[in-house]
Amino acid sequence: MRALSPKFEGCLVIEGGGIVLYPPHEADTYFAQFQPRDGECADSLTRAEAEARILGDDPTVLSHTVLMAAESEDDWVEELCASLASHRDFHVRRNALFALGRLAHKKRPLNRESIQPIIERAMVDPNSYVAGQAANAAMVVEGDLRWVINAFDNGQPELEVTTYSNGWIKCPNCGWRYATYDPSAFREGRCMQCRQKLRVIPGAT
Q1: Is the model's pLDDT at 18 over the cut of 50?
Q2: Which of 9, 42, 67, 163 has the maximum number of C-beta atoms within 10 A of its C-beta?
Q3: 19: pLDDT confidence band, cut at 50, 70 and 90?
Q4: Cα–Cα–Cα angle for 23, 113, 95, nearest 5°?
Q5: If you average pLDDT over residues 35-57, what whole number do you get?
Q6: What integer pLDDT is reported at residue 8 of this predicted model?
């Protein structure tokens, strides 16, 4: 997993009535293993109930509601999580970002046009735990949905590189060799190892 900036200290998730800290390197495990509290399941939360809880605007209730919603397969869940990602209470924002990451981990086809800006804005949230949770969600959408998060780019100018064999290149920044048609290594004009922007020039075949 990509190393994070020191400002991404970890992520707190309200769970089972308490608050649990998950450092970034454990995020993938937690996205996979999270379950709603005992006695409650995703099917017990309807859209009408979720909307009523939003109107109540109780941060403790909303922090738990968004986690429950993330276990549902209903189409309205993405919109709920997205709306709560900008809530005034940082506990709610943090859990909403976790929920978006959870949906991505389950390979839900999230609307990239609307969700990616939410995640990237949250990565610079003044609350370090919200920013950390956003970074975790960003890593998951990159890994499981094959998005490219601009905030992970290295900030260096674009470099030219020439293919040397059947679309293979050697990244001029990090030296990694890979096929340009391998999305795990190269996508949207970026080396996914060092996040260098590259302009590929066809060469030898």
Answers
A1: no
A2: 67
A3: very low
A4: 30
A5: 75
A6: 38
Q: Which two tokens stand for residue 174?
A: 């990090």
63: Cβ–Cβ under 8 A, 6 or more apart, which residues? 14, 89, 91, 92, 95
The answer to whether 21 touches 136, Cβ cutoff 8 Å, is no
Distance CA 89, CA 108 (A): 26
Average pLDDT over residues 168-187: 96
**Percent of the chain whose predicted confidence (pLDDT) is above 70:** 78
- AA letter at 53: R
Nearest Cα residue to 1 out of 95, 136, 97, 117: 136
Helices (H), the chain: 27-33, 47-56, 59-69, 76-84, 90-105, 112-122, 128-145
Provide the token pair at 39. 């006695």
C-alpha of 29 from chain center:
14
Q: What is the pTM of this model?
A: 0.78
Which of 86, 141, 83, 135 lies closest to 110, judged by CA?
141
